[in-house]
Each structure stands twice: as C-alpha cells, then as structure tokens.
Prior knowledge:
The complex is a heterodimer of chains A (53) and B (188). By secondary structure, chain A is an alpha+beta fold.
Amino acid sequence: xxxxEKIKIIYPQLEDKDFxxxxxxxxxxxxxxxxxAKWEHPTLAKxxxxxxx
Amino acid sequence: xxSIINASSxxxxxxxxxxxxxxxxxxxSNGVTVATIAASGVNAGIQMGAAFAPAFSAYxxxxxxxxxxxxxxxxxxxxxxxxxxxxxxNRFTPTVAGYYQVNVCISGPSSTTGIIAxxxxxxxxxxxxxxxxxxxxxxxxxxxxxxxxxxGSTDYxxxxxxxxxxxxxxxxxxxxxxxxxxxxxxxx
Lengths: 53, 188
C-alpha cells in the first residue's frame, strides 16, 4: 500500500484535488519512496508516523 | 581569430589589446573570453562565452513511475546539450547568477479518469506549476514554463509531475519530443 492509499484510509473524505493543492505527496526518484512534502489542509491534521505505519 | 581586449589582473594589471583584420572583437577577463562581438557572419551580434550563459536540454528514453496523486521527480537520462555542464542527476544547477527561462514538457498515461500536471521545482520545493489536463483518454502531454532567478551557486531546478489515474502510472519523457531545458536570459 502506498502513501496515498494509507492517507485515503485515514481520511476518506479527501479528494484528489486536495493532493494538487493543500497536500503535496512527493517522491524524489531517489529510491526513498513517497513522503509528505506539504500538509496545509485547513481542517485535517497531518497523519502521524504511527498512523501511517 | 579576433581583435582582443583583455582586462588583466596579472602583474600591474590593466588593458591588453591585440588586433587583427577579422572584424570581430573578443572581450576577455584575465585571458578568458567572456563575449565576442561581430557585425557579420553566423555569429553576428554579441555572443556570450558558453560558460557565462549556461543552457541545457535533456530528455529521457524511459518513463518515470509515479504513485497516484504524488508529485514525482521526472528523470532525464539523455542530454542534447549542456553548455556549462550544469545539468546532472536530473537537476539544473547553473553556476552563473541570473534569470533563466525554464521549460518542461512531459507525457502522461492514457486513462479515462484523473489529471496529469507538471511542476517546476526550485531548491526541492514546488515553485511554478504548469497546466493540468483531465480525462487523458488517449495520453497527452503537459507543459510548464517560467522565468526563474538562480543565484549561481546553491539554487537548483528540477521537474516534477503528478497523475491521478487511480494507481501507479508512468509519466515523464520517453523521447526527444519531450524534455527539460533552460537557458540564461540575462545575468543578475
């Protein structure tokens, strides 16, 4: 399961447009995988590492 | 050849000039040609030395795999030109301070749902987002272009893409028709 799918399970109300604007998941193509580069959602808190584990 | 005016700092320093009958003029700093001026020929006008006006163009022969809704750095494994060796590891780090015209064009997957977009990153962060296209039923391409200041030392530029077809999909450049390029427009 990738990071996007994990976040959608935690916050199913998120829409894809949120990931173009207030939330940026990022992958630097360096083999380290996806990570949260920006989380500026006005009402939903950034998931913790424990929630994403 | 050319007539030369050299601003030298060796010894007592000063201007050193030599002349010939070529009709072109080289402006040098410590013996290094910064610009050449000519009134005719294929290099007519003011030609900046390659090291003082960096430009590059790159593309890739393979696509980049991107997770759904995740900004993913696009890789470029083939250089068309790189006048000052400032492009490496999918990153443009110009060593001359100035304003650079940056262009990115990438291809996207075919899907009846979702969006593809491209983004110019500066120093590892989203900087100038290009156009986004939805309902990419036959595959498509998106572009981003911007005039960006780079400080000539630490600033660097990269290209990222995003797709939201619902799963992992390929984005990026897979032919010379797509690519990533930049050129100095003027110095700082």
